[in-house]
Amino acid sequence: MSHDFNTCVMIGLGYIGLPTAAVIARTGIKVLGVDINQHTVDTINAGLCPIEEKGLPELVGEMVASGRLSAATRPSPGDVFVIAVPTPFEGTYKPDLSYVEAAMRSIAPVLAKGNLVLLESTIPVGATEQAARWIEMLRPDLTVSHRGREDGPVGDVLVAHCPERILPGQMIRELVENDRVIGGVCKAAAERGRAFYKTFVKGDCLTTDARTAELCKLSENAFRDVNIAFANELSVICEEYGISVWELIGLANHHPRVNILQPGPGVGGHCIAVDPWFIVSAMDDKARLIREARWINSGRPRQVVRKVLEKLEASEGAIRSIACFGLSYKPNIDDVRESPAIEVVEYLARELPLSHPSVSLSVVEPFLEEMPKHLAGFPDVTKIGIDAGLQADLIVMLVDHRQFRDIPAERVAGKVLVDTRGVWSR
Ligand code: SAJ
User: Fold this and answer.
1) Which residues are the active-site residues?
2) To which CATH superfamily is domain 300-426 assigned?
3) Hey, what CATH topology would domain 7-211 get?
4) Which segments of the chain have a pLDDT < 50?
5) Which of 165, 188, 259, 264 has its CA 20 to 30 A from that of 157?
6) Residue with the nearest Cα to atom 35 of ligand 1?
7) Distance between CA atoms of 153 and 174, rounded to whole angstroms?
């Protein structure tokens, strides 16, 4: 190895931490993955993978078998500590940094001079500096270099933010190929961070300060949210005019400088539906466009439900069964976090018994074996296969999985459709 990173401790073995730990282990660095969930730890130590992701089970199995990856509930000393814990928001849309603070508390006792601490979790502006202060308070015997003190002596512990950017479904490839932004609390931290990422990243590793890196990540996801909101607003406008939004976007995108995204039933996942609030909650009325986009996208599931109820009313009792196609937050994955499709089904499952008690509701989701726990409170909602779903009187297309795209339009001829993804309406 042409570097001096021999051991890495990954805090958090979720959707980001586990694939990142496995890819780091592949370089030959010894990785200890830490998670508070004993079941996750046991599963990984058995060479199994608790997350569905292309290529990940094989890589985890191989790394555990080689002894380069292991898991525990508490950290041990190491050269680099990577933090990949969740940063949810509270009811007030303010980010909750308690997991980051708990991670700092867990690593503080084992930190040593020369260590590098990298936060990959998506965090609000200022949080990396806050993490550095927590370390200082917990370990008064160690110095942590500060913002604005670049010319002073380099701290014993270097702290930087390197936001993750990987797309579920393509994580292993993107972990290696994507460019990375590394923002140091001081310049030395950014440089040391770059040296670490260069051990497994083929993309460019760009250095900056911690605040810029924090806002960079939030801006990337806010950019996508705003652009999806634009597509969703266009779909409402098109409906008013009786125009196909899919045809419109297809035509507009022939312009060399136009690239409109796709409308849908809303924005799901644990990133784009969450991160823009980290900007809005800190900025209030200075982030009006970002806030409006969030409202537009988070209101989409209710618009879909309204459309379904309008179709029911218009059918005057002819519609006896509804099948919702897709539950995951986007196509071709099994991830249901913040899924707008689940929200649509939940609304319908609550509403139908009240206003249309004789109409049955079922869901079709080839990427899940069982009904997700969010829908456990609705025993009347059944999970059925594609063929059975196509027998329903009203089909609500919520996720354009490849299996659904393969269904020829003739098979839904004569059905009442609410096609939020343009599977049969393009
Ligand atoms: N969506 C639309 N229309 C579109 C594109 C997406 O409605 O044209 C919806 C999807 O159906 C889904 C949601 O948006 O519900 C988000 O999906 P996504 O594929 O846009 O993004 P994520 O949440 O899976 O991953 C994003 C990525 N960020 C960007 O593309 C800027 C990823 O690179 C980040 O690593 C990830 O967030 C993260 O962890 O922050």
Assistant:
1) 217, 271
2) NAD(P)-binding Rossmann-like Domain (3.40.50.720)
3) Rossmann fold (3.40.50)
4) none
5) 165
6) 165
7) 36
